[in-house]
């Protein structure tokens, strides 16, 4: 539910809402708020079927129409779950993205996938494949797991972690060819590596990047070159890990807060706590700032938040709609 006086506007298209005003952008194509489904793949811990259903239903009921997943998230679990939950809704009413670069193959079984961060059985495992054939196969297998006949955005996933040169020589040209063939609408790269994203943007083949954790309230290494390059070339930016995977997600920052999928170092805990105190002085909360911050940059179209429960979704919709005093932004920018 939106707070009193605030209008829910997850598209960010309404200039009368806090979210719409915050999103200062060149012509928009992607909605301002999206649902990240890594948590539906049991990231860190099990998300129950009931929680997953509640989260996706709350997102839909709250007007969210952009959903992101990947084969990597729970070795196929997130894609299957998200696809099944979205099947209740007409495909043309929402935007869906998934990723390529890792193929899923039979795993050893008998153990789990916690070494990769997901609480799922290891009956499947990932293999890097950025070849032309691997990209097409990955796309086809994702469609099958999702139970849809198309995705709107196909991202090359973490090319810096896999065979990077093959990613540039084969995967990106293949994605561009798939766009030409009408198989996908938008070509993207998703990564936390500013250098690899900048290199990808400069190929001229991208419509969108998914920028993980590198343009947040806590840190902005993308601001120097990457975001200006995206603006110059009309590449949309979807900011993700805007809570830096947990440290910015609560009004107070606990000692065991997560940063980059692991425990946060003490200097970051201190920075986050100082920001939380500043937010409180202005009557708002740290996560309100974390959700709102990236959308103030003119290159950023969307913020995609990782959510595993209906309560998190509803709370984040409220956060996105919250008015943040301009003088607070000024103090943060100073
Ligand atoms: N390379 C890439 O392309 C890439 C990289 C990273 C992310 N992504 C995408 O972006 C999405 C989001 O990224 P992310 O999962 O790294 O991080 P995030 O959005 O920074 O953080 C997600 C975590 O924040 C917590 N959270 C969310 N809403 C909350 C609320 N209202 N109250 C308290 N805690 C809340 C949840 O914690 P709990 O776990 O405690 O529930 C959740 O796991 C992913 O799902 C994925 O779709 C893509």
TrEMBL record:
The keyword NAD does not apply. SUPFAM superfamilies: NAD(P)-linked oxidoreductase. Gene3D superfamilies: NADP-dependent oxidoreductase domain (3.20.20.100). GO terms for molecular function: D-threo-aldose 1-dehydrogenase activity. Signal peptide: none annotated. Its EC number is 1.1.1.122. It is an enzyme of class 1 (oxidoreductase). Residues 33-334 form the NADP-dependent oxidoreductase domain. Keywords: Oxidoreductase. CDD domains: AKR_FDH (cd19162). It holds the Pfam family Aldo_ket_red. InterPro entries: AKR, FDH-like, NAD(P)_OxRdtase_dom_sf, NADP_OxRdtase_dom. It comes from the Bacteria. Residues 1-23 are annotated as: Disordered. This is D-threo-aldose 1-dehydrogenase.
